[in-house]
Amino acid sequence: MHVPLIDAVVANDYDRVRDMIANGVDLEYRDEDGRTALLAAVTANNIEIARVLMEAGADVNAQDDILDSPYLLAGARGYNEILQLTLEHGANLTSTNRYGGTALIPACERGHAETVAMLIAAGVDVNHVNNLGWSGLLEVVILGDGSEPYINITKQLIDAGADVNLADKDGVTPLQHAQHRGFGRIATLLDNAGGK
Fold it and tell me: What is the pTM of this model?
């Protein structure tokens, strides 16, 4: 099933996208995966096409069949210019992905420190827990590698009021995970913040 607007986005045909918008194309028309043109633009990190679609009113919160939305995907992938645009165009900060996580949680998991800063500043709940029973802080320690971006994110989360003792479903705290994985600097940060 071909959706002409999505085809134009995938082809990176900016002029055609603009012409179709000017002619009143349905911005929310979806492909067989439930994807809108804006989500296709975000998937390709195509900032200019994403911008023109948002300025025309494309829904930044429209979720596809696997619950990705332009806002959530930009956050997860660290596409900060597009993320900023979605925040300016009504991103739903409480929306969740297929794992029950906010945009902040995969940004933490993937070490996108600047993205995390943007989402914290926007007001995303730093203590939200996903379907796995993990907060952003737990994802930093369980799925991160202890490198500088993860240390930076740990500091940001602590400064933003993250509960350092919010344990996983097995009752293991972020500090215990950090100690087990040998992440000394992260463990020190958690310990100094009252981690148990």
Answer: 0.94
pLDDT in tens, the chain (196 residues): 678 999 999 999 999 999 999 999 999 999 999 999 999 999 999 999 999 999 999 999 999 999 999 999 999 999 999 999 999 999 999 999 999 999 999 999 999 999 999 999 999 999 999 999 999 999 999 999 999 999 999 999 999 999 999 999 999 999 999 999 999 999 999 999 999 9
Neighbours of 92 (CB within 10 A): 16
The domains found in the chain, sorted by start residue, are: 1-92 (1.25.40.20), 102-196 (1.25.40.20)
Q: What is the dihedral of CA 17, 19, 22, 26, to 10 degrees?
A: -40
